[in-house]
Amino acid sequence: MHRYLEERQELLRASVPGISSARRLSRVTDEMLRELARDAAARLLPADVGWSLVALGGYGAGALLPSSDLDLLVISNAPAATLKPFVEAILYPLWDSGLSVGHQVRSKREQLSSARADLATLTATLTGRVLAGDEALGRDVLVACAADTAK
């Protein structure tokens, strides 16, 4: 996390405002989150637990502004008690670093239901992209939410 924060600060100091800087910040953040998620999964989850970490909203679109929050979604069908230590191992370092984080932990069914019920959730999901974990699981949820809008 320390390396990420230093790299982030240097990027913010040296960058010219614009889309290319927002994309660079997004890529640097992706790398940090992938590392956090892989480490947390290896230490805290049973091997048979499927999960996917998904970026949503502007961050999901690959353009992270300096003051934007990290809008994250963890998709899994595992029980909440199983996922809690894993999710906390990702979120606590982010919060402790002063980063603003929006997060949800949901099953595919829960995400579909939330997207149907809330326009902000739907629009954030439409720009989603998988960061780590089971790529097929994450893509399946994103595609299902997008297809559901056509109904």
Describe the structure.
With 151 residues, the protein is of the alpha+beta class. Helices cover 62% and strands 14% of the residues. It is built from seven helices and four strands, in the order H-H-E-H-E-H-E-H-H-E-H. It has a four-stranded mixed β-sheet, with helices on both faces. Helix 4 links the parallel strand 2 and strand 3. The protein is globular. The protein starts with a helix and ends with a helix. The mean pLDDT is 95.
Walk across the major sheet and give the strand order: 3-2-1-4
| pLDDT < 50 stretches | none
> How many strand units?
4
Class from helix and strand fractions: alpha+beta
Strand content: 5-15%
| Share of helical residues | 55-70%
Please provide the ordered H/E string of secondary-structure elements. HHEHEHEHHEH
User: Averaged pLDDT, please?
Assistant: 95
Helix count equals 7
**In angstroms, what separates the terminal alpha carbons?**
42 Å
Main sheet overview: 4 strands, mixed
